[in-house]
Write a structure and sequence with these properties.
By secondary structure, the protein is an alpha/beta fold. The chain has five helices and seven strands; from the N terminus they run βββααββαβαβα. The structure holds adenosine-5'-diphosphate. The site of adenosine-5'-diphosphate has 21 residues, from helix 1.
Length: 194
C-alpha cells in the first residue's frame, strides 16, 4: 500500500502519482522546476532542456528580455522543443529557509499559477515534478502535503479544461511520500480514492 500509485478524482479531473522521468511524459504540458533566470540549471531543469533541445532556452531568453526574471511562485509557458509533451510550463519554487519565510505559500503559488496557465491555454493534461525538493532543499514530506493540497484546492475551486494532473516522482522514496500524502490529503478533503 505504502508504495502504490494513487489516484483521486476532483470535479472530473483525475489526479495521480507515478514514479518516472518527467521528460518522457505524454501529457500536453510538463512543468519545469526552474530558477528565476530561466537559463536552465541542474536537476529536472537540466534534464528538460537536454531532452527538449535549444528551442526551449531560446524562448526562455525572449521571455526574460521582455519581462525580466521570473519571481518565485510565478509561471510562464514555452514550446517543448523535441519533447513528447507540447508545452513546458516553467515555475520557480521557493528555496527552503526553515519554513518561516513564506515557503508553503510560495510553493502553493508555484503549483496553482502553473495550473492557471494550463487552464488559460485550454490544456487537457499536465505533469508536475516534486518542485523545490532537490537543490532548493524543501523537506519532501512537507512539500508533498503542500503540493497535493494546492492542486486539489485549485481543481475544487474551478471547472477547467484540465482532465488529468500527474505527479511524476523520480525516486522511489519521493514517489511513496507523494502517494501517501495524496491519500491523506484526499481523505481530509472528503474525496474518494479511485
Ligand atoms: P529544485 O531546484 O526545485 O529543488 P531539482 O531539480 O533540484 O529542483 O529537484 C526537484 C525534484 O526533481 C527532485 O525530487 C529530483 O529528484 C527530481 N528530478 C530530477 N530529474 C527528474 C526527472 N527527469 N523527472 C522527474 N523528476 C526529476
Amino acid at each position: 500500500m505504502e508504495n502504490q500509485a494513487t489516484e483521486v478524482t476532483i470535479n472530473q479531473t483525475k489526479l495521480r502519482t507515478i514514479q518516472g522521468d518527467i521528460t518522457q511524459q505524454t501529457t500536453e504540458a510538463i512543468v519545469n522546476a526552474a530558477n528565476s533566470s530561466l537559463m536552465g540549471g541542474g536537476g529536472v531543469d537540466g534534464a528538460i532542456h537536454r531532452a527538449g533541445g535549444p528551442a526551449i532556452l531560446e524562448e526562455c531568453k525572449q521571455i526574460v528580455a521582455r519581462r525580466g526574471r521570473l519571481p518565485t511562485g510565478e509561471a510562464v509557458i514555452t514550446t517543448s522543443g523535441n519533447l513528447k509533451a507540447k508545452y513546458v510550463i516553467h515555475t520557480v519554487g521557493p528555496v527552503w529557509h526553515g519554513g518561516g519565510k513564506g515557503e508553503s505559500e510560495l510553493l502553493t503559488s508555484a503549483y496553482q499559477e502553473s495550473l492557471k496557465l494550463a487552464a488559460e491555454n485550454k490544456l487537457s493534461s499536465i505533469s508536475f515534478p516534486s518542485i523545490s525538493t532537490g537543490v532548493y532543499g524543501y523537506p519532501v514530506s512537507q512539500a508533498a502535503k503542500v503540493a497535493t493540497g494546492a492542486v486539489i484546492t485549485f481543481l475544487r475551486q474551478s471547472t477547467t479544461s484540465i482532465k488529468e494532473v500527474v505527479f511524476v516522482l523520480f525516486d522511489a522514496k519521493t514517489f511513496a511520500t507523494y502517494s501517501s500524502a495524496l491519500r491523506e490529503t484526499a481523505a481530509k478533503m472528503g474525496l474518494n480514492l479511485a
